[in-house]
Amino acid sequence: MVQKKALSQVSREVLEFLIKSGRLRSCPKGLPSPPESSAEWCREAIASHKHRELRAVFAERSTAVQFPKEPLVVATDDPFERGDIRPNHAAELRFHTDDYCEYLTPLIKVAGEICFIDPYIDPRHIHYRHGFLEILKLATNNSNLLRIEIHRMSEYEPRRGNQPARELCTEKEWKPIFADWHRQLVDWKLKVDVHIWSKFGSRYFLTNHAGLSAGKGFKSDPAKKERHHWSLLKREHRNNVRSDFNSLGNSPTYEHRSQFCIGSQ
Fold first, then answer.
1. Environment class of residue 226 by beta-carbon count within 10 Å: exposed (0-12), middle (13-18) or buried (19+)?
2. Which of 31, 86, 95, 111 is found 20 to 30 A from 238 (Cα to Cα)?
3. Which domains does the chain carry?
4. Which pLDDT tens digits describe the chain residue by residue (265 residues)?
């Protein structure tokens, strides 16, 4: 039995997620005596592998080092829980890819998933074509990254005079626009899920650890002298944003128009 009050904040959230999503499974005990220490719980998990196959046993590093010859045991240190990585609560960034990479590298390096939300991300636009690829390339340094997402709006060309805005709502319309990025991502062995939504204006960067309000987005324009303001989101705000732009496409706020993958399948 695990007492929730004895768990860290991150561990409690993981446990609550497993319970709510129906992914917490019972298993016959593997050892004759109930575990009391972290090392004993680790041994219990390894023993239970005989009854129900496990992909990994996650343990704090201080515990994991006691099992150097056990391939199942994986050391998991949450740098956010320890306070080793804590993005600035507010920062003024230039419209430079270098600034974005410097600010986002520590977050992407330890993330399990990353989510770019910017209504204007466009592989054919000079402000995104090369610079945003450099940001995506940061993900090649994280072998534990499970998901990368891009979220943008369906409006592709703004309204001009009496002409209505041009909207692209289908995968068939969007795939050619992302073709160059697709080829590069294949080379990097990265897969990105692209989601197209009804019109929105805010820009964010989210991971499973943290959320940032991303000022005026991820466009690169070195000639621009002004700076834009990025800030750390509170947990509740981050969760609300993630609800609005979720991977299932069932947002309570925006209409989901299309979804497709680019890069390695």
1. exposed
2. 95
3. 32-77 (no CATH), 81-263 (3.30.870.30)
4. 444 444 555 566 666 766 776 767 777 788 888 888 888 888 888 888 877 777 677 777 778 788 888 877 776 655 544 444 455 567 889 999 999 998 899 889 888 999 999 999 999 999 999 999 999 999 999 888 889 999 999 998 766 766 777 889 999 999 999 999 999 999 999 999 999 999 999 999 999 888 999 999 999 998 988 999 998 888 889 999 999 999 898 899 999 999 999 998 7
Burial letters for 37-69: b for 16+ Cβ neighbours within 10 Å, e otherwise? eeeebbbbbbbbeeeeeeeebebeeebbeebee
Q: In 3D, which of 131, 124, 143, 111 has the Cα closest to residue 238?
A: 111
DSSP state of 233: P
The closest alpha carbon to 123, from 134, 132, 112, belongs to 132
166: closest CA among 178, 153, 177, 155?
A: 155
Amino acid 15 reads: L
For 116, phi then psi, to 5°, come to -100, 120
In our burial notation (b when 16+ CB lie closer than 10 A, e otherwise), range 120-129 reads bbbbeeebbe
- Report the length, in residues, of the chain: 265
**d(C-alpha 257, C-alpha 105), whole Å:** 31
Q: Which residues contact 66 (CB under 8 A, 6 or more apart)?
A: 39, 42
What is the residue-wise DSSP string for 163-200? BPPEE--SHHHHTTTTHHHHHHHHHHT-EEEEEEES--
Query: Using CA atoms, how far apart are residues 190 and 3, in angstroms rounded to an integer?
Result: 39
